[in-house]
Design goal:
Mean pLDDT: 77
Number of helices: 21
Distance between the termini: 41 Å
Helix content: 40-55%
Strand order of the largest sheet: 2-3-1-4-5-6
Shape: elongated
Radius of gyration: 29 Å
Order of helices and strands: EHEEHHHHEHEHEHHEHHHHHEHHHHEHHH
Structural class: alpha/beta
Largest sheet: 6 strands, mixed
Number of domains: 2
Low-confidence stretches: 31-40, 284-294, 316-321, 325-366
Strand content: 5-15%
């Protein structure tokens, strides 16, 4: 079995080396990321595996804390030495074990790998110590690919860094952003590595193809999860007995339990999406989604949210708390009564479809009522999950900021095809809990509509 391609990730302190590795390997738990200088104190490795076999082995190294002093300690290059020999000679000295212990770890790692990714926080001004750093790395005799990190930041000095690197013959460079990776960032990085390591081109092409397949698989897996959640919510139905239907207090309790069930299902969908994209669940709770941090329950059932969605879906403005009567009120002769005070509306009830009208009328004649979700609620959930899926697809594993789901949400009127695809679930309450061939067919149809949204 061929040895994995060994790549050291090097750079000055706090340049984002660990953050880059988390993004490249989709390992949110690798290393420690913080704003403190010198967080990484030892050389750590992480593999990128294909079909269970390590194809790349990345080595996360400590930051170069004193490149100016290190370059002076290396001394001049003697005529009888190559630059790597000068590095090896320095590693035998007492200074490498005492004054420059951290830097020595970096140099040893560089001598033992196939290539290095030189991570640069291009928000930093180009000062003398960084010129020393570039010269030291070039002395190790290994192909070095500079990775200009945080290029999307308004403080980026990308042009200045590119000019400095070119002065040291480092013309091949990769642009990246470990917080907000952009489309094409990783393929460009691996293509640049192929140019530097032509003898390892096959494995790098294999890695690039694998990552593209993984990206496509994550996208499809996310769409399947969203479709499953929407069908479950569309099918969700609770039937009230005669006693429960006639008591405002009992009905209010049932509505609250119904809401809690809806919110729990939405939460599980969010957690499943985080799993697909290899993010920790507390990323959503603490950083990603204000929709989940205490506001989300109020937002999902907020009358203004649902009224806006209802109007744009063409269902009228009379959208209440998002839980409607599932019976045909006009035909069954029911009075909304206290249910109207709870937010159940004729407009919402009429939007649900009446494929099971006979059963609903029978329930009404027996004094029973059934509750289901308004279309507006289902579409608001669809909006949030779609935006979350898209945001996680382009989110780096070093990011700590929030995702604004509302600002990036698709206009609800664009979701009309989804609404039609969810309607079959209204006639099958059992779809809220389990699979069946007909539910799987409905899910495939819904996935096709989600895919068409782009």
């Amino acid at each position: 079995m061929a040895e994995p391609l060994a790549i050291a990730v090097v750079g000055h302190t706090n340049a984002g080396k660990t953050s880059l590795l988390r993004t490249l390997t989709r390992r949110r738990d690798f290393g420690e990321v913080s704003g403190r200088p010198g967080t990484t104190r030892h050389v750590e490795s992480v593999d990128l595996a294909i079909d269970g076999r390590a194809a790349l082995r990345f080595f996360d190294t400590p930051g170069l804390e004193d490149p100016t002093g290190l370059l002076a300690a290396l001394g001049p290059l003697r005529a009888d030495m190559t630059p790597p020999q000068r590095i090896r000679a320095f590693l035998e000295t007492r200074a490498s074990r005492e004054d420059f212990e951290q830097e020595a770890k970096v140099l040893r790692a560089l001598l033992d790998v196939d290539a290095a990714l030189f991570v640069i926080d291009c928000r930093e001004p180009v000062v003398a110590k960084f010129r020393c750093e570039v010269e030291i790395l070039a002395s190790c005799g290994k192909p070095v690919l500079p990775v200009l990190n945080f290029v999307r930041d308004p403080l980026s000095r990308e042009a200045q860094w590119s000019a400095l690197l070119a002065d040291f013959a480092l013309h091949a460079q990769a642009r990246f952003d470990a917080v907000a990776p952009f489309e094409g960032g990783q393929p460009q990085l691996y293509a640049s590595l192929q140019a530097l390591l032509p003898q390892r081109q096959a494995v790098l092409q294999q890695v690039a193809g694998f990552l593209e397949r993984e990206r496509a698989d994550r996208h499809e897996a996310g769409l399947r999860l969203i479709a499953d959640a929407l069908l479950s919510l569309g099918a969700l139905r609770v039937t009230l007995s005669r006693e429960e239907a006639s008591s405002a207090a009992l009905k209010a309790q049932i509505v609250e339990r119904f809401r809690a069930d809806v919110l729990q299902r939405a939460r599980r969908a969010v957690q499943s999406l985080l799993d697909v994209h290899a993010f920790a669940h507390d990323d959503a709770e603490l950083a990603l989604l204000p929709w989940l941090d205490g506001r989300w329950a109020a937002d999902l059932f907020h009358p203004e949210t649902l009224r806006d969605a209802g109007v744009r879906l063409g269902k009228g403005a009379a959208i209440g708390a998002g839980i409607g009567l599932a019976a045909d009120v006009a035909l069954a002769g029911l009075s909304l009564g206290s249910a109207a005070a709870l937010g159940a509306t004729i407009g919402g009830a009429a939007s649900q479809g009446f494929g099971t009208l006979g059963r609903r009328v029978a329930e009404a004649l027996q004094g029973r009522e059934a509750l289901s979700l308004e279309d507006a609620v289902v579409m608001v959930v669809a909006q949030r999950l779609l935006v979350l899926h898209a945001a996680l697809s382009t989110r780096g594993h070093a990011a700590h900021g929030r995702v604004d789901l509302e600002r990036a949400a698709l206009p609800v009127e664009r979701l009309q095809p989804l609404l039609r695809a969810v309607q079959p679930a209204r006639a099958h309450p059992q779809w809220a809990e389990g699979d069946s061939p007909r539910r799987e067919a409905a899910q495939r149809a819904l996935i096709a509509e989600l895919r068409a949204l782009g």
